[in-house]
Amino acid sequence: MTDAILSLRGISKHFGGVKALTDVSLELERGKVVALVGDNGAGKSTLVKVMSGVHRPDSGKYIFEEREIQVSDPAAIADMGVQTVYQDLALCNNLDAVQNLFLGREMTGPWWTGFRLNRAEAERKARDVLKRLRLDSISLRRNVGAMSGGQRQNIAIARSILWEPKVVLLDEPTAALSHSAAEQVGALVRELASHGLAVLVISHDIHHFVLENTDRIEVLRLGRNAASFNSKEVTGEQVVNAMVGGNEAVNMAG
Ligand SMILES: Nc1ncnc2c1ncn2[C@@H]1O[C@H](COP(=O)(O)OP(=O)(O)OP(=O)(O)O)[C@@H](O)[C@H]1O
Ligand SMILES: [Mg+2]
User: Fold this and answer.
1) Residue ranges of E strands in 134-245
2) Are residues 75 and 173 in the same domain?
3) Are residues 150 and 129 in the same domain?
4) Is 155 exposed, middle or buried (0-12, 13-18, 19+ CB in 10 A)?
5) Beta-strand relationship, 216-221 and 224-230
6) Fewer Cβ within 10 Å of end Cβ, the chain: N or C?
7) Which residues are CB-neighbours of 237 under 8 A, at least 6 positions away?
């Protein structure tokens, strides 16, 4: 066991008669970006929801920092250091970047201020985290509803970082983005890994986003591990072939 932070071993999960996941294993390491790819319905989002504590697996092990965890609820998983950014982002359009970053957080002044939100302190922290992520160009005071899809995605990712997680899970962060906005998200994802975080990102954009911004590619097909590739040593065609099936499971991760 070297740099693994989060490992899933033999995870299965069904919904009624639908076997969403069967005997799936996955490992996330410090400083690495792993892409989770597969066709629609392959089980990617379900696997992320197991990792984030939304779904309790029927069987299998969830190991975090070498200890087996009993998945109870998403808040406990988040407290442990696993943050998830879902596709809908859960941002409030009528609030600005600072307010969104601290949404749901206790950002209160001392008791003699009546525990009011300390705006100056929040702004300072917001500026700090955006700078660390090289997102300084984002306006702190504009309502996020008036921002581009890429900027909104970046704010949602920055918000997850404020909790100083060890693992960040991103479900299709580039789905609705232009090529250049997706490139920005790619740069951000690599930035997170360079700070030592373990990152998992679901994407359908194999040729651009996945090959360019990730270290390893894990392919799910029909709810099972289908292949694992080193991103630097594989072609988009090989990845797509593994997604749609035909060949036996392959393992080419270096
Ligand atoms: N809450 C649920 N209740 C019932 N079935 C579900 C539920 N969530 C997922 N499923 C089923 O589990 C399977 C896997 O779905 P999942 O959303 O994980 O796929 P996915 O790989 O994320 O697909 P996509 O690329 O379309 O987002 C599908 O057959 C889906 O219908
Ligand atoms: Mg999905």
Assistant:
1) 167-171, 198-202, 216-221, 224-230
2) yes
3) yes
4) buried
5) antiparallel
6) N
7) none
Whether 223 and 57 have beta carbons less than 8 Å apart is answered as no
Is pTM beyond 0.85 here?
A: yes
Indicate whether 53 and 174 sit together in one domain.
yes
99, 92 in Cβ contact below 8 A?
Answer: yes
Mutating to test ligand 1, I would choose from 8, 11, 44, 48 the residue with most ligand atoms within 8 A of its C-beta, which is 44
Distance from the alpha carbon of residue 138 to the mean position of ligand 2, in angstroms: 28
Which of 143, 164, 185 is a domain's end point? 164
Cβ proximity of 229 and 249 under 8 Å:
no
**216: how many CB neighbours lie within 10 A of its CB?**
20
Ligand 1 and 203: CB distance under 6 A: no
- Each residue's pLDDT tens digit, 156-210: 888 888 878 999 999 998 887 888 888 888 999 999 999 999 999 999 999 989 9
**What is the total count of domains within the chain?**
2
Burial category of 210 from C-beta neighbours within 10 Å (exposed 0-12, middle 13-18, buried 19 and up): buried
Give yes or no for residue 40 CB within 6 A of ligand 1.
yes
Residue 87, in any domain of the structure: no
- 8 Å CB contact between 8 and 167: no
Report yes or no on 227 lying in a domain: yes
Domain coverage including residue 135:
95-164
